[in-house]
Amino acid sequence: MDKQDTENDFEAMDDHMMSSLETPLRPDAFDLTDQEKITIIAGHFKEIMHTLGLDLTDDSLKGTPHRVAKMYVKEIFQGLHPDNKPVIRRFENKYMYNRMLVERDITLYSSCEHHFVPIIGKAHVAYIPGEHVIGLSKLNRIVQYYARRPQVQERMTMQIANELKQALQTEDVAVLIEADHLCVMSRGVNDVTSSTITAEYGGLFQEEHYRSEFLSHIRKK
Ligand SMILES: Nc1nc2c(ncn2[C@@H]2O[C@H](COP(=O)(O)OP(=O)(O)OP(=O)(O)O)[C@@H](O)[C@H]2O)c(=O)[nH]1
Ligand SMILES: [Zn+2]
């Protein structure tokens, strides 16, 4: 691929990211069942391994195509399927708790959509309840749902923030993600010390006071 192609790729990526927060999916993305997807992906992965020169009759390797396909569909990319979206029940804020609620250090395991290798880190989310609250674990589940698909960190951050705003019926939501990208660490520039931080601050979190309180909570150990 020459430099011009790479630049065009990035222009296409920029256009897409500006026009939509949605993960780019084909219109017929859910026509196949999970089982059909696993069978097809296993076949393709077998070809990849075969092309790499691996002996697929070897005891240790022969199950790998099916293992990888099942892992893609049922585990690390399960967040592509809307059926796996967490069901969030809103409760009335009967305690009248109107201060900040922070859920910090949420385990984040995602995959880079450019190289299909892991993005590993932590998400910190916060909101200021209005009339509604949701169960604490649902904050983690929303993070996991958007992480379990091929991602770029910026889009993942915005998708999580938007979902929280909808679930909580408030703009007063903050999301900060700090993550290590294996595509940066284990190949390419091979940098194992850098990490990537992205953040979205909605509503009151655009004000310095609320933002600093959030940041001070997530810095405390
Ligand atoms: N903005 C953004 N870029 C990412 C993310 N994850 C990976 N990338 C970058 O996507 C870019 C893809 O660039 P390319 O030049 O097409 O790929 P490449 O030749 O493998 O690039 P190198 O990683 O530099 O070797 C790389 O610079 C990655 O670091 C992400 O979450 N956000
Ligand atoms: Zn990557």
Keywords, separated by commas or semicolons:
two-stranded antiparallel ribbon; GTP Cyclohydrolase I, Chain A, domain 1; 221 residues; zinc; binds zinc ion; binds guanosine-5'-triphosphate; alpha+beta; GTP Cyclohydrolase I, domain 2; 2 domains; five-stranded mixed β-sheet; nucleotide-binding
- Helices, by number, come to 7
| CATH class descriptor name of the largest domain | Alpha Beta
Class of secondary structure makeup: alpha+beta
What is the mean pLDDT?
A: 93
State the total count of DSSP E strands: 7
- How many structurally independent domains? 2
Instruction: Please tell me the CATH architecture of the largest domain by its name.
Output: 2-Layer Sandwich
Identify the strand order in the major beta sheet: 5-2-3-6-7
Q: Can you tell me about this structure?
A:
With 221 residues, the protein is of the alpha+beta class. It folds into 2 domains: 3-84, GTP Cyclohydrolase I, Chain A, domain 1, CATH 1.10.286; 90-219, GTP cyclohydrolase I, C-terminal domain/NADPH-dependent 7-cyano-7-deazaguanine reductase, N-terminal domain (GTP Cyclohydrolase I, domain 2), CATH 3.30.1130.10. It is 42% helix and 20% strand. It contains 7 helices and 7 strands. The chain has helices at 3-19, 34-51, 64-76, 136-147, 153-168, 182-185, 208-219, and strands spanning 90-92, 101-112, 118-127, 132-134, 150-151, 173-181, 196-201. A 5-stranded mixed sheet has the order 5-2-3-6-7. Helix 2 (34-51) crosses helix 3 (64-76) and helix 4 packs antiparallel against helix 5 (153-168). The longest helix is centred in the N-terminal third of the chain and has 18 residues, at 34-51. It is globular and about 65 Å long. The model is unreliable at 14-18 (pLDDT under 50). Zinc ion (ZN) binds next to loops.
